[in-house]
Amino acid sequence: MPSSSESAPDTSSTPIATARRLRWAVVGSGGIARRTVGDLRQCAQAEVVAICSRSAERAAAFAQAEGLPLAFGDYDRLCASPEVDAVYIGTPHSTHFALARQALQAGKHVLCEKPLVMRADEARALGRIAAERGVFLMEAMWMKFSPAVRKAVDLVAAGTIGEPRFLQAGLGYPVPPDGPARFWDAALGGGALYDMAVYTVTLARMFLGELVEVSATGTVRPDGVDLEEAITLRHVDGRLAQLATSITFMVPPRGWLGGRQGAIEFTEPLFSPAALRVTLGRPPAPPSVEELAFPREGAGYVPMFRAVHEAILAGQTEHPWHPVSATAEVLEILQRIQAALIADRDQRR
Ligand SMILES: NC(=O)c1ccc[n+]([C@@H]2O[C@H](COP(=O)([O-])OP(=O)(O)OC[C@H]3O[C@@H](n4cnc5c(N)ncnc54)[C@H](OP(=O)(O)O)[C@@H]3O)[C@@H](O)[C@H]2O)c1
Description:
Blueprint: E1 22-27, H1 31-40, E2 46-52, H2 56-66, E3 70-72, H3 75-80, E4 86-89, H4 96-105, E5 109-112, H5 120-133, E6 137-139, H6 147-157, E7 164-172, H7 181-184, H8 193-208, E8 211-220, E9 226-235, E10 240-246, E11 255-259, E12 262-266, E13 275-280, E14 288-293, H9 302-313, H10 324-347
Parallel strand pairs: 1-2, 1-4, 2-3, 4-5, 5-6, 7-10
Antiparallel strand pairs: 7-11, 8-9, 9-10, 11-12, 12-13, 13-14
NADP nicotinamide-adenine-dinucleotide phosphate is lined by residues 28-32, 53-55, 58, 90-93, 95, 113-114, 180-182, 195.
Protein backbone atom coordinates (compact mmCIF):
# COMPACT_ATOMS: atom_id res chain seq x y z
CA MET A 1 0.00 0.00 0.00
CA PRO A 2 1.47 3.41 -0.84
CA SER A 3 2.98 5.15 2.13
CA SER A 4 0.82 7.93 3.50
CA SER A 5 3.85 10.21 3.33
CA GLU A 6 3.81 9.99 -0.45
CA SER A 7 2.64 13.45 -1.39
CA ALA A 8 4.18 15.98 -3.72
CA PRO A 9 6.56 18.44 -2.06
CA ASP A 10 4.87 21.66 -1.04
CA THR A 11 6.70 24.45 -2.85
CA SER A 12 3.99 27.06 -2.33
CA SER A 13 5.81 28.87 0.46
CA THR A 14 9.18 28.94 -1.28
CA PRO A 15 9.30 31.80 -3.78
CA ILE A 16 13.03 31.24 -4.40
CA ALA A 17 12.27 27.78 -5.70
CA THR A 18 12.33 28.71 -9.37
CA ALA A 19 14.88 31.50 -9.06
CA ARG A 20 18.01 29.32 -9.02
CA ARG A 21 19.60 26.57 -11.01
CA LEU A 22 21.46 23.74 -9.34
CA ARG A 23 25.01 23.12 -10.48
CA TRP A 24 25.64 19.37 -10.77
CA ALA A 25 28.78 17.27 -10.87
CA VAL A 26 28.61 13.68 -12.09
CA VAL A 27 30.93 11.23 -10.32
CA GLY A 28 32.30 8.32 -12.37
CA SER A 29 32.76 8.54 -16.14
CA GLY A 30 31.02 5.25 -17.05
CA GLY A 31 27.97 4.63 -19.21
CA ILE A 32 25.48 5.76 -16.60
CA ALA A 33 27.23 9.15 -16.43
CA ARG A 34 26.43 9.98 -20.05
CA ARG A 35 22.79 9.03 -19.59
CA THR A 36 22.65 11.21 -16.49
CA VAL A 37 24.15 14.24 -18.20
CA GLY A 38 21.66 13.93 -21.07
CA ASP A 39 18.61 13.68 -18.81
CA LEU A 40 19.76 16.33 -16.33
CA ARG A 41 20.05 18.70 -19.26
CA GLN A 42 16.35 18.22 -19.93
CA CYS A 43 15.54 19.80 -16.56
CA ALA A 44 15.24 23.56 -16.74
CA GLN A 45 16.60 24.01 -13.21
CA ALA A 46 19.72 21.87 -13.73
CA GLU A 47 23.11 22.90 -14.96
CA VAL A 48 25.65 20.13 -15.42
CA VAL A 49 28.98 21.80 -14.68
CA ALA A 50 31.45 19.04 -13.79
CA ILE A 51 32.63 15.46 -14.13
CA CYS A 52 34.77 13.70 -11.55
CA SER A 53 36.83 10.64 -12.41
CA ARG A 54 39.64 8.78 -10.67
CA SER A 55 41.70 9.79 -13.68
CA ALA A 56 42.30 13.42 -14.64
CA GLU A 57 42.67 12.34 -18.29
CA ARG A 58 39.31 10.55 -18.32
CA ALA A 59 37.68 13.52 -16.60
CA ALA A 60 39.13 15.93 -19.17
CA ALA A 61 38.05 13.73 -22.08
CA PHE A 62 34.52 13.38 -20.69
CA ALA A 63 34.25 17.12 -20.02
CA GLN A 64 35.34 17.89 -23.54
CA ALA A 65 32.98 15.37 -25.10
CA GLU A 66 30.02 16.62 -23.08
CA GLY A 67 30.93 20.31 -23.09
CA LEU A 68 31.33 20.63 -19.31
CA PRO A 69 33.36 23.53 -17.88
CA LEU A 70 34.93 21.61 -14.97
CA ALA A 71 36.85 18.31 -14.87
CA PHE A 72 38.04 16.87 -11.55
CA GLY A 73 40.53 14.02 -11.28
CA ASP A 74 40.36 14.22 -7.51
CA TYR A 75 37.24 13.77 -5.40
CA ASP A 76 38.56 15.96 -2.55
CA ARG A 77 38.80 18.88 -4.96
CA LEU A 78 35.29 18.32 -6.22
CA CYS A 79 33.91 18.28 -2.68
CA ALA A 80 35.81 21.49 -1.87
CA SER A 81 34.61 23.29 -5.00
CA PRO A 82 32.26 26.24 -4.40
CA GLU A 83 31.13 25.90 -8.03
CA VAL A 84 29.21 22.67 -7.42
CA ASP A 85 25.92 22.41 -5.48
CA ALA A 86 25.00 18.77 -6.01
CA VAL A 87 26.64 15.48 -6.97
CA TYR A 88 25.28 12.52 -8.86
CA ILE A 89 27.15 9.36 -7.87
CA GLY A 90 27.35 6.82 -10.70
CA THR A 91 30.10 4.47 -9.49
CA PRO A 92 29.87 0.79 -8.39
CA HIS A 93 27.67 0.01 -5.36
CA SER A 94 30.33 -0.58 -2.72
CA THR A 95 31.89 2.86 -3.34
CA HIS A 96 28.65 4.78 -2.72
CA PHE A 97 28.82 5.09 1.07
CA ALA A 98 32.22 6.79 1.29
CA LEU A 99 31.59 9.04 -1.71
CA ALA A 100 28.14 10.12 -0.50
CA ARG A 101 29.35 10.71 3.07
CA GLN A 102 32.20 12.96 1.95
CA ALA A 103 29.97 14.99 -0.36
CA LEU A 104 27.27 15.42 2.28
CA GLN A 105 29.85 16.45 4.86
CA ALA A 106 31.11 19.03 2.37
CA GLY A 107 27.58 20.45 2.13
CA LYS A 108 26.67 19.06 -1.31
CA HIS A 109 23.28 17.62 -2.19
CA VAL A 110 23.59 13.95 -3.18
CA LEU A 111 21.64 11.84 -5.63
CA CYS A 112 23.22 8.39 -5.72
CA GLU A 113 22.70 5.44 -8.03
CA LYS A 114 20.93 2.38 -6.68
CA PRO A 115 21.55 0.73 -4.32
CA LEU A 116 22.26 3.82 -2.20
CA VAL A 117 24.59 1.72 -0.03
CA MET A 118 24.98 -1.95 0.90
CA ARG A 119 23.45 -1.87 4.40
CA ALA A 120 20.50 -0.23 6.12
CA ASP A 121 22.63 1.22 8.91
CA GLU A 122 24.84 2.95 6.33
CA ALA A 123 21.77 4.52 4.71
CA ARG A 124 20.52 5.77 8.06
CA ALA A 125 23.95 7.19 8.89
CA LEU A 126 23.99 9.12 5.61
CA GLY A 127 20.43 10.32 6.28
CA ARG A 128 21.53 11.73 9.62
CA ILE A 129 24.45 13.60 8.03
CA ALA A 130 22.17 15.06 5.34
CA ALA A 131 19.66 16.21 7.95
CA GLU A 132 22.40 17.74 10.13
CA ARG A 133 23.96 19.56 7.20
CA GLY A 134 20.59 20.57 5.74
CA VAL A 135 21.35 19.03 2.36
CA PHE A 136 19.37 16.65 0.18
CA LEU A 137 20.01 12.91 -0.07
CA MET A 138 18.25 10.33 -2.22
CA GLU A 139 18.85 7.01 -3.93
CA ALA A 140 18.22 7.43 -7.67
CA MET A 141 15.21 5.09 -7.61
CA TRP A 142 13.84 6.38 -10.93
CA MET A 143 11.20 3.61 -11.03
CA LYS A 144 9.25 5.30 -8.22
CA PHE A 145 9.12 8.56 -10.20
CA SER A 146 8.15 7.03 -13.54
CA PRO A 147 4.71 8.19 -14.75
CA ALA A 148 3.46 4.57 -14.87
CA VAL A 149 4.36 3.82 -11.26
CA ARG A 150 2.94 7.16 -10.09
CA LYS A 151 -0.28 6.27 -11.90
CA ALA A 152 -0.31 2.86 -10.21
CA VAL A 153 0.08 4.57 -6.82
CA ASP A 154 -2.91 6.78 -7.64
CA LEU A 155 -5.01 3.82 -8.83
CA VAL A 156 -4.28 1.88 -5.66
CA ALA A 157 -4.98 4.91 -3.45
CA ALA A 158 -8.30 5.39 -5.26
CA GLY A 159 -9.25 1.77 -4.52
CA THR A 160 -9.48 0.87 -8.22
CA ILE A 161 -8.15 -2.69 -7.76
CA GLY A 162 -9.22 -3.03 -4.14
CA GLU A 163 -6.72 -3.94 -1.46
CA PRO A 164 -3.41 -5.03 -3.06
CA ARG A 165 -2.62 -8.59 -1.93
CA PHE A 166 0.08 -9.98 -4.22
CA LEU A 167 2.98 -8.75 -6.32
CA GLN A 168 4.73 -10.90 -8.84
CA ALA A 169 7.76 -9.26 -10.40
CA GLY A 170 10.97 -10.21 -12.12
CA LEU A 171 14.11 -8.66 -13.48
CA GLY A 172 17.22 -10.37 -14.76
CA TYR A 173 19.38 -11.11 -17.75
CA PRO A 174 22.43 -13.16 -18.59
CA VAL A 175 25.37 -10.85 -17.94
CA PRO A 176 28.39 -11.93 -20.01
CA PRO A 177 31.43 -13.00 -17.98
CA ASP A 178 33.31 -9.99 -19.35
CA GLY A 179 30.33 -7.68 -18.66
CA PRO A 180 30.34 -4.88 -16.08
CA ALA A 181 32.50 -5.76 -13.08
CA ARG A 182 29.80 -4.58 -10.70
CA PHE A 183 27.88 -7.81 -11.41
CA TRP A 184 30.72 -10.28 -10.85
CA ASP A 185 33.06 -8.70 -8.31
CA ALA A 186 32.16 -9.38 -4.68
CA ALA A 187 34.24 -6.38 -3.59
CA LEU A 188 32.04 -4.09 -5.70
CA GLY A 189 28.80 -5.54 -4.27
CA GLY A 190 28.34 -8.00 -7.16
CA GLY A 191 25.33 -10.24 -7.80
CA ALA A 192 21.70 -9.92 -8.89
CA LEU A 193 20.23 -8.96 -5.53
CA TYR A 194 21.59 -5.46 -4.98
CA ASP A 195 21.62 -4.57 -8.66
CA MET A 196 18.32 -5.95 -9.92
CA ALA A 197 16.15 -7.19 -7.04
CA VAL A 198 16.53 -3.76 -5.48
CA TYR A 199 13.78 -2.72 -7.94
CA THR A 200 11.36 -5.59 -7.32
CA VAL A 201 11.83 -5.41 -3.55
CA THR A 202 11.26 -1.64 -3.65
CA LEU A 203 8.00 -2.24 -5.54
CA ALA A 204 6.90 -4.89 -3.04
CA ARG A 205 7.61 -2.68 -0.04
CA MET A 206 5.86 0.23 -1.73
CA PHE A 207 2.58 -1.56 -2.44
CA LEU A 208 2.42 -4.29 0.20
CA GLY A 209 3.61 -2.58 3.37
CA GLU A 210 5.99 -3.76 6.06
CA LEU A 211 7.83 -7.02 5.68
CA VAL A 212 7.14 -9.90 8.06
CA GLU A 213 9.01 -12.90 6.66
CA VAL A 214 11.48 -13.81 3.92
CA SER A 215 12.18 -17.08 2.19
CA ALA A 216 14.55 -17.46 -0.73
CA THR A 217 16.33 -20.15 -2.66
CA GLY A 218 18.88 -19.83 -5.42
CA THR A 219 22.55 -20.01 -6.27
CA VAL A 220 25.21 -18.09 -4.37
CA ARG A 221 28.92 -18.40 -5.13
CA PRO A 222 31.35 -19.10 -2.27
CA ASP A 223 32.45 -15.44 -2.37
CA GLY A 224 28.86 -14.33 -1.73
CA VAL A 225 27.95 -13.20 -5.27
CA ASP A 226 24.34 -14.34 -5.87
CA LEU A 227 23.66 -15.57 -9.40
CA GLU A 228 19.93 -16.34 -9.47
CA GLU A 229 17.11 -16.61 -6.99
CA ALA A 230 13.40 -17.08 -6.31
CA ILE A 231 12.20 -14.97 -3.40
CA THR A 232 8.95 -15.05 -1.44
CA LEU A 233 8.14 -12.13 0.84
CA ARG A 234 5.36 -12.15 3.40
CA HIS A 235 4.18 -8.65 4.31
CA VAL A 236 1.72 -7.41 6.93
CA ASP A 237 -1.78 -8.87 6.82
CA GLY A 238 -0.56 -11.86 4.81
CA ARG A 239 0.18 -9.90 1.64
CA LEU A 240 2.68 -11.76 -0.54
CA ALA A 241 5.33 -11.04 -3.13
CA GLN A 242 7.02 -13.53 -5.40
CA LEU A 243 10.13 -12.19 -7.07
CA ALA A 244 12.68 -13.66 -9.48
CA THR A 245 16.06 -12.26 -10.39
CA SER A 246 19.20 -13.45 -12.09
CA ILE A 247 22.45 -12.51 -13.76
CA THR A 248 22.65 -15.89 -15.54
CA PHE A 249 19.34 -16.16 -17.42
CA MET A 250 16.55 -13.96 -18.74
CA VAL A 251 13.81 -12.85 -16.37
CA PRO A 252 11.43 -10.56 -18.27
CA PRO A 253 11.38 -7.15 -16.57
CA ARG A 254 7.72 -6.92 -15.73
CA GLY A 255 5.24 -7.62 -12.96
CA TRP A 256 1.68 -7.43 -11.74
CA LEU A 257 -0.05 -6.36 -8.58
CA GLY A 258 -3.17 -8.31 -7.69
CA GLY A 259 -5.93 -6.74 -5.62
CA ARG A 260 -9.30 -7.91 -4.37
CA GLN A 261 -11.11 -6.32 -7.33
CA GLY A 262 -8.55 -6.31 -10.08
CA ALA A 263 -4.90 -6.20 -11.05
CA ILE A 264 -2.34 -3.79 -12.45
CA GLU A 265 0.31 -5.14 -14.80
CA PHE A 266 3.57 -3.24 -15.15
CA THR A 267 4.85 -3.77 -18.69
CA GLU A 268 8.50 -3.78 -19.70
CA PRO A 269 10.79 -2.42 -18.49
CA LEU A 270 9.75 -2.72 -14.88
CA PHE A 271 12.07 0.08 -13.72
CA SER A 272 10.35 2.54 -16.09
CA PRO A 273 7.21 0.81 -17.42
CA ALA A 274 6.04 1.80 -20.87
CA ALA A 275 2.44 0.95 -19.94
CA LEU A 276 0.05 -0.29 -17.27
CA ARG A 277 -2.63 -2.87 -18.01
CA VAL A 278 -5.50 -2.56 -15.58
CA THR A 279 -7.83 -5.57 -15.38
CA LEU A 280 -11.04 -5.35 -13.38
CA GLY A 281 -13.87 -7.78 -12.66
CA ARG A 282 -14.13 -11.48 -12.03
CA PRO A 283 -15.52 -14.53 -13.83
CA PRO A 284 -18.02 -15.38 -15.17
CA ALA A 285 -18.29 -11.77 -16.44
CA PRO A 286 -15.61 -10.93 -18.99
CA PRO A 287 -12.96 -8.70 -17.40
CA SER A 288 -12.53 -5.10 -18.44
CA VAL A 289 -8.98 -4.45 -19.58
CA GLU A 290 -7.59 -0.98 -20.05
CA GLU A 291 -4.09 -0.22 -21.26
CA LEU A 292 -2.49 3.08 -20.31
CA ALA A 293 0.67 4.08 -22.18
CA PHE A 294 3.39 6.38 -20.84
CA PRO A 295 5.92 7.86 -23.27
CA ARG A 296 9.44 7.99 -21.89
CA GLU A 297 11.15 11.33 -21.38
CA GLY A 298 14.83 11.20 -22.30
CA ALA A 299 16.36 7.98 -20.99
CA GLY A 300 13.64 7.83 -18.32
CA TYR A 301 15.37 9.76 -15.52
CA VAL A 302 13.79 13.12 -16.32
CA PRO A 303 10.72 12.82 -14.01
CA MET A 304 12.99 11.86 -11.09
CA PHE A 305 15.41 14.72 -11.78
CA ARG A 306 12.55 17.19 -11.99
CA ALA A 307 11.11 15.99 -8.66
CA VAL A 308 14.54 16.13 -7.03
CA HIS A 309 15.01 19.72 -8.18
CA GLU A 310 11.63 20.74 -6.81
CA ALA A 311 12.47 19.17 -3.44
CA ILE A 312 15.98 20.67 -3.21
CA LEU A 313 14.90 24.12 -4.29
CA ALA A 314 12.08 23.93 -1.76
CA GLY A 315 14.69 23.33 0.96
CA GLN A 316 13.85 19.67 1.59
CA THR A 317 16.53 17.18 2.63
CA GLU A 318 14.71 14.20 1.14
CA HIS A 319 11.88 13.48 -1.25
CA PRO A 320 8.59 12.26 0.23
CA TRP A 321 8.18 9.66 -2.52
CA HIS A 322 11.54 8.05 -1.72
CA PRO A 323 12.87 9.13 1.68
CA VAL A 324 16.03 7.59 3.13
CA SER A 325 13.90 5.57 5.56
CA ALA A 326 12.30 3.79 2.58
CA THR A 327 15.73 3.03 1.13
CA ALA A 328 16.89 1.70 4.50
CA GLU A 329 13.85 -0.58 4.79
CA VAL A 330 14.52 -2.04 1.34
CA LEU A 331 18.18 -2.57 2.25
CA GLU A 332 17.08 -4.39 5.39
CA ILE A 333 14.94 -6.70 3.23
CA LEU A 334 17.85 -7.26 0.81
CA GLN A 335 20.10 -8.15 3.75
CA ARG A 336 17.51 -10.64 5.01
CA ILE A 337 17.16 -12.18 1.55
CA GLN A 338 20.93 -12.48 1.28
CA ALA A 339 21.09 -14.21 4.67
CA ALA A 340 18.27 -16.58 3.63
CA LEU A 341 20.07 -17.42 0.37
CA ILE A 342 23.32 -18.19 2.18
CA ALA A 343 21.52 -20.33 4.78
CA ASP A 344 19.73 -22.17 1.96
CA ARG A 345 23.05 -22.79 0.17
CA ASP A 346 24.84 -23.96 3.30
CA GLN A 347 22.01 -26.30 4.24
CA ARG A 348 22.32 -28.11 0.91
CA ARG A 349 26.08 -28.59 1.14
N1 LIG B 1 19.55 3.08 -13.04
C1 LIG B 1 20.03 2.36 -14.00
O1 LIG B 1 19.37 2.04 -14.99
C2 LIG B 1 21.45 1.90 -13.91
C3 LIG B 1 22.07 1.34 -15.01
C4 LIG B 1 23.41 0.97 -14.90
C5 LIG B 1 24.06 1.16 -13.70
N2 LIG B 1 23.41 1.70 -12.64
C6 LIG B 1 24.10 1.92 -11.38
O2 LIG B 1 25.19 2.79 -11.62
C7 LIG B 1 26.29 2.43 -10.80
C8 LIG B 1 27.50 2.27 -11.70
O3 LIG B 1 27.29 1.17 -12.54
P1 LIG B 1 28.22 0.98 -13.82
O4 LIG B 1 27.90 -0.31 -14.45
O5 LIG B 1 28.20 2.21 -14.64
O6 LIG B 1 29.61 0.80 -13.09
P2 LIG B 1 31.07 0.83 -13.70
O7 LIG B 1 31.02 0.98 -15.18
O8 LIG B 1 31.84 -0.30 -13.12
O9 LIG B 1 31.63 2.15 -13.03
C9 LIG B 1 31.14 3.43 -13.40
C10 LIG B 1 32.28 4.41 -13.21
O10 LIG B 1 32.61 4.47 -11.83
C11 LIG B 1 34.03 4.65 -11.70
N3 LIG B 1 34.54 3.52 -10.92
C12 LIG B 1 34.70 2.24 -11.30
N4 LIG B 1 35.21 1.51 -10.30
C13 LIG B 1 35.36 2.35 -9.27
C14 LIG B 1 35.86 2.20 -7.95
N5 LIG B 1 36.29 1.00 -7.51
N6 LIG B 1 35.90 3.29 -7.18
C15 LIG B 1 35.45 4.49 -7.60
N7 LIG B 1 34.99 4.69 -8.87
C16 LIG B 1 34.94 3.64 -9.67
C17 LIG B 1 34.59 4.62 -13.11
O11 LIG B 1 34.75 5.96 -13.53
P3 LIG B 1 36.19 6.63 -13.49
O12 LIG B 1 37.10 5.62 -14.05
O13 LIG B 1 35.97 7.81 -14.31
O14 LIG B 1 36.50 6.94 -12.05
C18 LIG B 1 33.53 3.97 -13.93
O15 LIG B 1 33.50 4.37 -15.27
C19 LIG B 1 25.91 1.16 -10.05
O16 LIG B 1 25.63 1.44 -8.71
C20 LIG B 1 24.66 0.66 -10.78
O17 LIG B 1 23.70 0.07 -9.90
C21 LIG B 1 22.13 2.08 -12.74
